[in-house]
Amino acid sequence: MSMIQFENVTKTYGDGTTAVDGLSFEVKAGETLTLVGPSGCGKTTTMKMINALIPATEGTISIDGVSIDDCDTIELRRSIGYVVQEIGLLDHMTVAENIGIVPDLLGWDDDRIENRVDELLELIELPLESGKQYPSELSGGQRQRVGVARALAANPQVLLMDEPFGALDPITRDSLQDEFLEIQSELDVTIVFVTHDIDEALKMGDKVAVMRNGDIVQCDTPKTILSDPATEFVSNFVGEDQHFKHLSTVSVADVMTEETDPLDAPSVQPTEDLKQVAQIFLGSDQDALPVVQNGTRVGTVTRGQVKVVVDGDQSLGGKGVAQNV
Known about the structure:
Helix content: 25-40%
CATH superfamily of the largest domain: P-loop containing nucleotide triphosphate hydrolases
Shape: globular
Number of helices: 15
CATH architecture of the largest domain: 3-Layer(aba) Sandwich
Strand content: 15-25%
CATH topology of the largest domain: Rossmann fold
Number of domains: 2
Order of helices and strands: EEEHEEHEHHHHEHEHEEHHHHHEEHH
Strand order of the largest sheet: 6-7-8-3-9-10
Largest sheet: 6 strands, mixed
Number of strands: 12
Distance between the termini: 41 Å
Structural class: alpha/beta
């Protein structure tokens, strides 16, 4: 079932610039669609038309079968979670107050808001005491977690994420991507995720829509984008190291065994992708890594399993990373 549907949507500005041109696509319920492309391709405009921050010039945008033109704009925006790169937390309000903004606007009682804030702090793995802190007392990564929690506070069916991890350092960004993927597995929410980073798009999306000049050039699974790019533009945008990027579409949980023999090696989580695991193997002489979830050993991932993933994909030639891992 489609949760979000675009039908021949166009956005033309007053100066005649067409940012989005006759766009049609759908996002199924519970699916994550990443929109990726160069600057000016229309990806952010497309996302902002979903919650009517930018009005469409032509065409129809529907959420759960209802045209947004038939919805009250304020109610529409309150029903959709929204996470941006700049986070947008209010510095004069505590973490708990920031998370509870939309539920408060929706008229939730204080006990319900407090319980929801506690649930979300636990979900994003921040101590309950942090609810009393102010954003300035948190790290960048913690503030971004709070931004995600605030977007989820009112249990939205749809979550929009506009380069949410783009301002973070690479290590924190990778960590938060993994954490969000784990959180996402516990939620029933449809996500549109905008990024300029093809690696992030491939990692975070069930489907990836590559955009250019206000239109979608290709919308497919990450594996298909890598193995069968529809045009030269898509191939060039993905880049030459497609064999290595392919590893980002496979998680540790997809390949690990249940073996739990003791290992003196760095641990990984089930939600981490094999690209991260390959980097560990490339930088060490380890042949196996323990897989740990919530402090408990749940399995093992091996150097050989990483090789099998690459060698088993004939479209990637079975070369490159597999020779060196």
